[in-house]
Protein backbone atom coordinates (compact mmCIF):
# COMPACT_ATOMS: atom_id res chain seq x y z
CA UNK A 1 0.00 0.00 0.00
CA UNK A 2 1.38 3.39 -0.97
CA UNK A 3 0.59 6.91 0.20
CA UNK A 4 -0.56 8.91 -2.81
CA UNK A 5 -1.33 12.39 -1.52
CA UNK A 6 -1.63 14.39 1.66
CA UNK A 7 -2.94 17.65 3.00
CA UNK A 8 -0.51 20.06 4.69
CA UNK A 9 -0.81 19.28 8.42
CA UNK A 10 0.14 22.84 9.32
CA UNK A 11 -2.44 24.46 7.14
CA UNK A 12 -5.81 23.10 8.10
CA UNK A 13 -6.14 21.24 11.36
CA UNK A 14 -3.92 21.99 14.38
CA UNK A 15 -3.33 19.33 17.01
CA UNK A 16 -4.88 16.04 15.91
CA UNK A 17 -7.76 14.60 13.90
CA UNK A 18 -10.08 12.24 15.78
CA UNK A 19 -12.62 11.09 13.20
CA UNK A 20 -12.94 10.54 9.46
CA UNK A 21 -16.08 9.56 7.56
CA UNK A 22 -16.64 9.21 3.81
CA UNK A 23 -19.79 10.57 2.21
CA UNK A 24 -20.13 10.17 -1.56
CA UNK A 25 -17.03 11.89 -2.96
CA UNK A 26 -16.06 13.83 0.15
CA UNK A 27 -14.06 13.17 3.31
CA UNK A 28 -15.48 14.53 6.58
CA UNK A 29 -12.98 15.25 9.36
CA UNK A 30 -13.19 16.47 12.96
CA UNK A 31 -10.63 17.75 15.46
CA UNK A 32 -10.91 18.83 19.12
CA UNK A 33 -8.37 21.56 18.39
CA UNK A 34 -10.91 23.25 16.10
CA UNK A 35 -13.41 23.48 18.98
CA UNK A 36 -16.30 21.89 17.17
CA UNK A 37 -15.57 22.82 13.55
CA UNK A 38 -15.94 20.24 10.75
CA UNK A 39 -13.86 20.11 7.59
CA UNK A 40 -15.01 18.68 4.25
CA UNK A 41 -12.39 17.50 1.73
CA UNK A 42 -12.53 16.31 -1.85
CA UNK A 43 -12.12 12.51 -1.98
CA UNK A 44 -9.87 12.62 -5.05
CA UNK A 45 -7.30 15.37 -4.39
CA UNK A 46 -7.88 16.28 -0.70
CA UNK A 47 -8.70 19.89 -1.50
CA UNK A 48 -10.61 21.67 1.24
CA UNK A 49 -14.21 22.22 0.11
CA UNK A 50 -16.03 23.50 3.17
CA UNK A 51 -15.83 24.11 6.91
CA UNK A 52 -18.63 24.66 9.39
CA UNK A 53 -19.04 25.05 13.14
CA UNK A 54 -20.84 22.03 14.61
CA UNK A 55 -20.28 22.36 18.38
CA UNK A 56 -18.77 24.76 20.91
CA UNK A 57 -16.35 22.03 22.05
CA UNK A 58 -14.45 19.21 20.37
CA UNK A 59 -16.29 16.70 18.18
CA UNK A 60 -15.59 13.04 18.98
CA UNK A 61 -17.36 11.19 16.17
CA UNK A 62 -19.35 11.52 12.94
CA UNK A 63 -22.01 9.34 11.32
CA UNK A 64 -23.90 9.56 8.03
CA UNK A 65 -27.35 7.96 7.78
CA UNK A 66 -29.35 8.67 4.64
CA UNK A 67 -29.17 12.41 3.99
CA UNK A 68 -28.30 13.26 7.57
CA UNK A 69 -24.91 13.82 9.21
CA UNK A 70 -24.78 13.22 12.96
CA UNK A 71 -22.06 14.68 15.18
CA UNK A 72 -21.31 14.05 18.86
CA UNK A 73 -19.19 16.12 21.19
CA UNK A 74 -17.43 16.65 24.48
CA UNK A 75 -20.30 19.07 25.20
CA UNK A 76 -22.56 16.00 25.79
CA UNK A 77 -24.77 16.67 22.77
CA UNK A 78 -25.58 14.94 19.50
CA UNK A 79 -26.61 17.08 16.54
CA UNK A 80 -28.06 16.28 13.12
CA UNK A 81 -27.22 18.17 9.91
CA UNK A 82 -28.32 18.18 6.29
CA UNK A 83 -25.47 16.33 4.58
CA UNK A 84 -25.78 18.46 1.43
CA UNK A 85 -26.00 21.96 2.94
CA UNK A 86 -24.56 21.29 6.43
CA UNK A 87 -27.45 23.24 7.93
CA UNK A 88 -28.46 22.23 11.45
CA UNK A 89 -31.54 20.03 11.59
CA UNK A 90 -31.80 19.30 15.29
CA UNK A 91 -29.97 19.16 18.60
CA UNK A 92 -30.90 15.81 20.10
CA UNK A 93 -31.75 15.33 23.80
CA UNK A 94 -28.49 15.91 25.71
CA UNK A 95 -26.44 13.23 27.46
CA UNK A 96 -24.96 13.76 30.92
CA UNK A 97 -21.35 13.13 29.85
CA UNK A 98 -19.16 13.51 26.77
CA UNK A 99 -20.50 11.48 23.83
CA UNK A 100 -17.64 9.43 22.34
CA UNK A 101 -19.09 7.14 19.67
CA UNK A 102 -21.89 6.94 17.10
CA UNK A 103 -23.16 3.86 15.25
CA UNK A 104 -26.17 2.75 13.21
CA UNK A 105 -27.92 -0.52 12.44
CA UNK A 106 -29.24 1.04 9.24
CA UNK A 107 -32.42 2.47 10.74
CA UNK A 108 -31.56 3.97 14.15
CA UNK A 109 -28.67 6.01 15.56
CA UNK A 110 -26.81 4.81 18.66
CA UNK A 111 -24.72 7.22 20.77
CA UNK A 112 -22.35 5.98 23.51
CA UNK A 113 -20.97 8.25 26.21
CA UNK A 114 -18.47 8.45 29.07
CA UNK A 115 -21.15 7.61 31.64
CA UNK A 116 -21.59 4.20 30.04
CA UNK A 117 -24.93 5.00 28.50
CA UNK A 118 -25.98 4.23 24.93
CA UNK A 119 -28.94 6.26 23.66
CA UNK A 120 -30.98 5.26 20.63
CA UNK A 121 -32.49 7.84 18.27
CA UNK A 122 -34.56 7.76 15.11
CA UNK A 123 -33.08 9.19 11.91
CA UNK A 124 -35.21 12.27 12.65
CA UNK A 125 -33.51 12.64 16.04
CA UNK A 126 -36.25 11.44 18.39
CA UNK A 127 -35.14 9.49 21.48
CA UNK A 128 -36.32 5.86 21.42
CA UNK A 129 -34.56 4.28 24.43
CA UNK A 130 -31.30 4.14 26.34
CA UNK A 131 -29.19 1.35 27.80
CA UNK A 132 -26.70 1.49 30.67
CA UNK A 133 -23.63 -0.58 29.77
CA UNK A 134 -21.69 0.26 32.97
CA UNK A 135 -18.40 1.53 31.49
CA UNK A 136 -17.27 4.29 29.14
CA UNK A 137 -18.03 3.54 25.50
CA UNK A 138 -14.75 3.69 23.56
CA UNK A 139 -15.96 1.49 20.70
CA UNK A 140 -19.50 0.92 19.42
CA UNK A 141 -21.17 -1.23 16.77
CA UNK A 142 -24.87 -1.88 16.15
CA UNK A 143 -26.51 -4.55 14.00
CA UNK A 144 -30.19 -5.45 14.11
CA UNK A 145 -31.01 -5.61 17.86
CA UNK A 146 -27.42 -6.22 19.02
CA UNK A 147 -25.06 -3.68 20.56
CA UNK A 148 -21.28 -4.22 20.69
CA UNK A 149 -19.49 -2.01 23.22
CA UNK A 150 -15.88 -1.95 24.40
CA UNK A 151 -13.51 0.11 26.51
CA UNK A 152 -9.92 -1.03 27.15
CA UNK A 153 -10.68 -4.53 28.39
CA UNK A 154 -13.46 -6.78 27.17
CA UNK A 155 -16.09 -6.59 24.43
CA UNK A 156 -19.71 -6.82 25.60
CA UNK A 157 -22.44 -7.93 23.19
CA UNK A 158 -25.94 -6.94 24.29
CA UNK A 159 -29.33 -7.92 22.89
CA UNK A 160 -31.66 -4.93 23.23
CA UNK A 161 -35.40 -5.27 23.80
CA UNK A 162 -36.56 -1.94 22.37
CA UNK A 163 -37.29 -0.35 25.76
CA UNK A 164 -35.07 1.64 28.10
CA UNK A 165 -32.71 -0.64 30.05
CA UNK A 166 -34.46 -3.78 28.83
CA UNK A 167 -31.61 -5.91 27.51
CA UNK A 168 -29.67 -9.15 27.89
CA UNK A 169 -25.88 -9.50 27.79
CA UNK A 170 -25.34 -12.40 25.40
CA UNK A 171 -21.54 -12.58 25.21
CA UNK A 172 -18.31 -11.18 26.67
CA UNK A 173 -15.10 -11.44 24.65
CA UNK A 174 -11.44 -10.53 25.10
CA UNK A 175 -10.38 -7.34 23.34
CA UNK A 176 -10.12 -3.58 23.58
CA UNK A 177 -11.00 -0.52 21.52
CA UNK A 178 -11.04 0.15 18.62
CA UNK A 179 -13.75 -2.27 17.49
CA UNK A 180 -14.57 -3.09 13.87
CA UNK A 181 -16.98 -5.47 12.13
CA UNK A 182 -15.85 -6.49 8.63
CA UNK A 183 -18.03 -8.90 6.67
CA UNK A 184 -18.62 -11.86 8.96
CA UNK A 185 -15.75 -10.93 11.28
CA UNK A 186 -15.59 -9.06 14.58
CA UNK A 187 -12.13 -7.51 14.89
CA UNK A 188 -10.48 -5.93 17.96
CA UNK A 189 -6.94 -5.52 19.31
CA UNK A 190 -6.03 -7.92 22.12
CA UNK A 191 -5.36 -6.62 25.63
CA UNK A 192 -1.82 -5.33 24.97
CA UNK A 193 -2.97 -3.60 21.78
CA UNK A 194 -0.11 -5.11 19.74
CA UNK A 195 -2.00 -7.80 17.83
CA UNK A 196 -5.51 -8.15 16.38
CA UNK A 197 -8.09 -10.75 17.42
CA UNK A 198 -10.51 -12.01 14.75
CA UNK A 199 -13.81 -13.55 15.88
CA UNK A 200 -16.49 -15.24 13.78
CA UNK A 201 -19.41 -12.79 13.86
CA UNK A 202 -21.84 -15.03 11.95
CA UNK A 203 -23.10 -17.03 14.95
CA UNK A 204 -23.79 -16.43 18.63
CA UNK A 205 -20.72 -18.48 19.58
CA UNK A 206 -18.30 -15.80 18.26
CA UNK A 207 -15.61 -18.43 17.75
CA UNK A 208 -12.01 -17.22 17.80
CA UNK A 209 -10.66 -17.51 14.24
CA UNK A 210 -7.12 -16.35 14.94
CA UNK A 211 -4.81 -13.38 15.46
CA UNK A 212 -3.03 -10.94 13.16
CA UNK A 213 0.47 -9.89 14.17
CA UNK A 214 2.76 -7.32 12.61
CA UNK A 215 2.54 -3.99 14.42
CA UNK A 216 5.45 -3.02 16.66
CA UNK A 217 3.40 -0.66 18.84
CA UNK A 218 -0.19 -0.22 20.06
CA UNK A 219 -2.90 -0.33 17.39
CA UNK A 220 -5.09 2.78 17.37
CA UNK A 221 -7.30 2.41 14.29
CA UNK A 222 -9.12 -0.28 12.30
CA UNK A 223 -11.31 -0.09 9.19
CA UNK A 224 -12.86 -2.55 6.77
CA UNK A 225 -11.89 -2.21 3.11
CA UNK A 226 -14.25 -4.92 1.80
CA UNK A 227 -15.98 -8.06 3.05
CA UNK A 228 -12.63 -9.78 3.72
CA UNK A 229 -10.03 -7.02 3.95
CA UNK A 230 -8.98 -5.04 7.01
CA UNK A 231 -6.64 -2.08 7.35
CA UNK A 232 -4.96 -1.34 10.69
CA UNK A 233 -2.67 1.41 11.94
CA UNK A 234 -1.03 2.44 15.19
CA UNK A 235 1.71 4.12 17.16
CA UNK A 236 4.38 2.58 14.92
CA UNK A 237 3.17 5.09 12.28
CA UNK A 238 2.35 2.37 9.76
CA UNK A 239 -0.79 1.11 8.02
CA UNK A 240 -1.16 -2.58 7.19
CA UNK A 241 -3.71 -4.47 5.07
CA UNK A 242 -4.92 -7.95 6.02
CA UNK A 243 -6.79 -10.73 4.25
CA UNK A 244 -9.44 -11.89 6.74
CA UNK A 245 -10.08 -15.08 4.77
CA UNK A 246 -6.50 -16.35 5.08
CA UNK A 247 -5.62 -14.28 8.19
CA UNK A 248 -2.45 -13.11 6.49
CA UNK A 249 -1.02 -9.73 5.43
CA UNK A 250 -1.79 -8.68 1.86
CA UNK A 251 1.45 -6.73 1.50
CA UNK A 252 4.95 -7.44 2.78
CA UNK A 253 5.77 -3.77 3.36
CA UNK A 254 3.48 -1.50 5.40
CA UNK A 255 2.70 2.06 4.37
CA UNK A 256 4.52 4.68 6.44
CA UNK A 257 2.30 7.47 7.81
CA UNK A 258 3.24 11.05 8.81
CA UNK A 259 2.29 10.32 12.43
CA UNK A 260 0.17 8.15 14.68
CA UNK A 261 -3.33 7.84 13.18
CA UNK A 262 -6.42 8.26 15.34
CA UNK A 263 -8.81 7.26 12.59
CA UNK A 264 -9.07 5.39 9.28
CA UNK A 265 -11.73 5.30 6.57
CA UNK A 266 -11.90 3.21 3.39
CA UNK A 267 -13.75 4.00 0.16
CA UNK A 268 -15.34 1.57 -2.35
CA UNK A 269 -12.63 2.34 -4.93
CA UNK A 270 -9.95 0.81 -2.71
CA UNK A 271 -8.55 3.99 -1.20
CA UNK A 272 -7.81 4.37 2.50
CA UNK A 273 -7.70 7.69 4.35
CA UNK A 274 -5.75 8.18 7.58
CA UNK A 275 -5.61 11.17 9.90
CA UNK A 276 -4.23 11.90 13.32
CA UNK A 277 -1.57 13.58 15.42
CA UNK A 278 -0.15 16.74 13.87
CA UNK A 279 -3.40 17.37 12.01
CA UNK A 280 -2.43 15.37 8.93
CA UNK A 281 -4.82 13.79 6.45
CA UNK A 282 -3.44 11.39 3.84
CA UNK A 283 -4.79 9.09 1.14
CA UNK A 284 -3.42 5.61 0.43
CA UNK A 285 -4.02 3.12 -2.36
CA UNK A 286 -3.38 -0.63 -2.37
CA UNK A 287 -0.87 -1.38 -5.16
TrEMBL record:
- Which SUPFAM superfamilies does this entry report, sorted A to Z? WD40 repeat-like (SSF50978)
Q: Could you name the domain of life of the organism this protein comes from?
A: Eukaryota
- Transmembrane region positions? none
GO CC, sorted alphabetically, is: nucleolus
Q: Which UniProt keywords apply?
A: Repeat, Signal, WD repeat
Q: Which Gene3D superfamilies match?
A: YVTN repeat-like/Quinoprotein amine dehydrogenase (2.130.10.10)
- Tell me one GO biological process term: ribosomal large subunit assembly
In residue terms, where are the WD repeats?
52-91, 212-252
Question: Which protein are we looking at?
Answer: Uncharacterized protein
Leader sequence range is 1-29
Xref: Pfam families: WD40
Q: Does the keyword Signal apply?
A: yes
Amino acid sequence: MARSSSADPRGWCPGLVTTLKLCWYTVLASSPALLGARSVWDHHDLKLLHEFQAHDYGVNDLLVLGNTLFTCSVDATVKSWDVNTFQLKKTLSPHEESVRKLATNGTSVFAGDDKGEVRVYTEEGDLLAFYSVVEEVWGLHAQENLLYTVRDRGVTITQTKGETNKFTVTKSLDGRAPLCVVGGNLVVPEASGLSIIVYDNTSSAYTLRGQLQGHAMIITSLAGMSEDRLVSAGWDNTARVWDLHTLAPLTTTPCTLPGCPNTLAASPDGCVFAAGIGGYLCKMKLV
